[in-house]
Design brief:
By secondary structure, the protein is α/β, with parallel strands linked by helices. The protein has a single domain (13-273), classed as Rossmann fold (3-Layer(aba) Sandwich), CATH 3.40.50.720. The chain contains ten helices and seven strands. It has helices spanning 25-35, 54-60, 73-87, 101-104, 114-137, 164-184, 201-204, 209-219, 227-238, 263-273, and strands at residues 13-17, 39-43, 64-65, 90-95, 141-151, 189-195, 249-252. The protein has a seven-stranded parallel beta sheet, with helices on both faces. Helix 3 runs parallel beside helix 5 (114-137). The radius of gyration is 18 Å and the shape is globular. The termini are far apart. The protein binds nicotinamide-adenine-dinucleotide. Nicotinamide-adenine-dinucleotide (NAD) binds at residues 18, 20, 24-26, 44-45, 48, 69-71, 96-99, 123, 150-152, 195, 197-198, 200-203.
Length: 274
């Protein structure tokens, strides 16, 4: 085990989807899971292979990489089969995957390209269904396993520039509930972590991201939650300490989601008016 951990995930094995580079939430999650004694396979889309970024994380966390497009059932089935051979049955899966096709190309919500919209939903939400389906088909999951998917408050509230991604996250969170009921019979848990705006490749692809980040920073009593704290929170959900928590959207946002107005923002807006 790496130094500094509490062995919260000792003997636990899993797959972590979505580490792209050092800013990725999944990158930090992999480091925290490793620190706590968990072992895992890293997976990402085959196109990421060209960037040659993931090797360093794999080396640091003694893990292997298996490429799989999360919208391709065949890729996912062979990923789970290969992982079964490497690690045996799994105790956790982390879904940290998203892509807003229209958002990326600044196409407004009123005028979405529907083929892109469908791709957005497939990559960012239906992929969770496909992953759980593949895990069940290949009989890869231990009873009592834990699944975590990363979400955002845009699933419930309108953040104008989040556009189609709000729909994708609403679907993602619904899949969490729908599977949560069905997996509960085996003690398998599935939850969504609704994370603060975080400076990552996906985050920065949203128009006005810096304004959104600053706004949330000024409103949240604890400020924005960073990627490292998100990773630690994920560890708790993968651990047995939270074994009775399932079907939830859990806000990891420094308190932002329960706020309306803050003194800090009032001061700022007053300055802007004077
Ligand atoms: N950054 C934020 O502000 C923020 C806030 C809340 C939630 N989230 C969520 O966190 C998750 C991780 O995003 P991130 O911010 O770390 O950005 P990121 O860009 O580092 O991660 C997104 C990942 O999705 C992967 N991906 C895209 N298409 C794929 C496909 N077809 N198959 C497999 N993988 C694919 C990318 O390769 C990348 O690794 C996403 O679900 C995102 O919506 C991010």
């Amino acid at each position: 085990m790496a130094s500094g951990g509490h062995a919260l995930l000792k003997d636990k094995k899993g797959i972590i989807f979505g580490a792209l580079n050092e800013t990725s939430l999944a990158w930090h999650i992999a480091e925290s899971v490793y620190r706590e004694g968990g072992r895992f396979v890293l997976s990402n889309s085959p196109v990421v292979n060209r960037l040659r970024t993931l090797g360093a994380l794999a080396e640091r966390t003694e893990s292997s990489i298996i490429w799989a497009d999360a919208t391709e059932d065949e890729d996912l089935n062979s990923l789970f089969q290969e992982t079964l051979k490497k690690l045996g049955k799994l105790d956790f899966v982390v879904h940290s995957i998203a892509m807003g096709m229209n958002v990326r190309r600044s196409r407004p919500y009123e005028d979405l390209r529907y083929d892109w919209y469908q791709r957005t939903l497939d990559i960012s939400a239906i992929s969770l269904h496909r992953i759980v389906h593949a895990a069940l088909e290949t009989e890869s999951m231990n009873d009592g396993a834990s699944i975590v998917a990363l979400s955002y408050l845009g699933a419930q509230r309108i953040f104008s520039k989040y556009s189609e991604m709000g729909d994708a996250k609403a679907l993602l969170e619904s899949i969490v509930r729908s599977f949560g009921y069905r997996l509960g019979k085996r003690g398998i848990r599935i939850n969504a972590i609704s994370q603060s705006p975080t400076r990552t490749t996906a985050g920065s692809g949203i128009d006005g991201f810096d304004a959104l980040y600053e706004f949330a920073e000024k409103v949240a009593p604890l400020g924005n939650a960073d990627a490292a704290s998100c990773a630690d929170y994920t560890v708790t959900l993968l651990s047995d300490l939270t074994r009775m928590v399932t079907m939830q959207t859990l806000y990891h946002d420094g308190g932002f989601s329960n706020m309306g107005m803050s003194d800090e923002l009032i001061v700022d807006l007053s300055k802007a008016r004077s």
